[in-house]
Amino acid sequence: ETGVTQSPTHLIKTRGQQVTLRCSSQSGHNTVSWYQQALGQGPQFIFQYYREEENGRGNFPPRFSGLQFPNYSSELNVNALELDDSALYLCASSSPGTGTGEKLFFGSGTQLSVL
Amino acid sequence: GNSVTQMEGPVTLSEEAFLTINCTYTATGYPSLFWYVQYPGEGLQLLLKATKADDKGSNKGFEATYRKETTSFHLEKGSVQVSDSAVYFCALAPHNAGGTSYGKLTFGQGTILTVHP
Question: What is the mean pLDDT of residues A51-61?
C-alpha cells in the first residue's frame, strides 16, 4: 500500500457543475501527476505539478486545472463538467532526484460520475 | 505524439502456463518503458522498467526486454499463478534528462489477465 491518499473516493455531479478532487502525496514527494482513466482504458496524463508549479500538461482543455500546495498536496479542479468527464481520476507522487525518483506511487483514485 | 499499443485482451490461462503480453510503442527519442499492474481493489503499481535499448526489466518472475529495432516491450512470465490475475499496463515516459518525465506516462489500454487453478 502506498502513502498516496485521494479524496473523496466516489463523487456524483451533474453536467455543468464544478468539482475539486484532492490528493495527499507520499511523505517527502514533491511531484504530483494526475491521470484520467475511463472505463476499460489506460490512464491518460492530465498534468504534473513540481514544487508548486505546473510542469507539463497532456491533451486536456483549460477547464481542467490544478494546484499544488507548499506541503506538496494537490488539487484537480474541473469546471463545466461534461458527461465524458465520468472516469476514475488518479494521482501519483514521486520524488525525482532521490533513490525512488523514477517510481510513481499511485493513489486508489476518485471515481467521478457526471449525470 | 507518443503512443502505446497492447495486445487485445482479455487473456485467460491455466496455472503454470507461459504468459506473453505484447506491447509496441511509438515515440520520439529514447523513451523509458514500464509495465504497471493493477490488482483487484488496489492502485497501480510499478512491475518493472527499462530505460535504454536492450535493457531487460525483471520482477516477481516477469521479464520484458526493450527492443528499439522493433519498438516493443513484451511482458513474459514462464509460469503464471492465480495470484498474477490483474490488469497489466504497458507505458512509456518521454526522454528527459530530469526525473520528472517518469510522471508523464503514456499508457496502453491495459490487458486483463485471469489465471485459473
Answer: 92
